[in-house]
Amino acid sequence: MTATISGPAPSVHLQGHAHEADLETCLDFVNTESYDDGVPDEHLAVSQDVIAWFEEHGLAHQPALRAQAAAGGEVWLARVRTVREALRAVWDAEVEHRIPDQAALDTVNGVLREAPRIELVAGDGCCGVGHRHSNDDATGEALAVVVQPLVRAIAAGETGRFRVCANDGCRWVFEDTSRAGRRRWCDMTTCGNRAKVRRFRSRRRTGHADEATGDPVGDAAPATPPA
Ligand SMILES: [Zn+2]
Q1: What is d(CA 160, CA 163) in angstroms, rounded to the nearest whole number?
Q2: Up-side HSE of residue 146: CA atoms within 13 Å toward CB?
Q3: How far is the CA of 38 from the centre of ligand 1 (A)?
Q4: How many whole angstroms from 128 Cα to the centroid of ligand 1?
């Protein structure tokens, strides 16, 4: 009985073009604003950047997304960035074991309400799983799909390896998949090495052994001093 499903001109799509995201995709989205020595580097500078990002990740039907972007202009772009900012705020709060700002929660919850609905559909002699678009907010639907993996991780209590790069000028978000679970930097060859150079110099200045813990690399001098 399909008549129970309402909404403006809905369309059902079988999995196979499923708009699905994993936590990595979610983090990739957050990191579209990266930092270099604390200076933001905006990878979603114009609407087309957002459309291309969603396209790369197979997260939206392009015509609907493009139409919304064209109609919304800067407001549309700002909405996408606001969701990204809220995701970072939630991630940071999880890493720091504190409650995020209510505004961030409200923003995330706002897009969750736009999530495409999962449903069973009659397939070829069996059931298939499809999803139904409301077709009135393709952007909200795509954002919801990006947000969902983070919500699922929190629901499952799987936040113990959420990390933010220990370099304050970087703040790259990532999940620590190392065996020991002691990864602190986005990348040892950049941020990790930079931190090491600082400690090495500070040791030489003070003549004291460095007591920093959690550095998986050891105490040898860094290979490449920073520029
Ligand atoms: Zn970093």
Answers
A1: 8
A2: 34
A3: 10
A4: 42
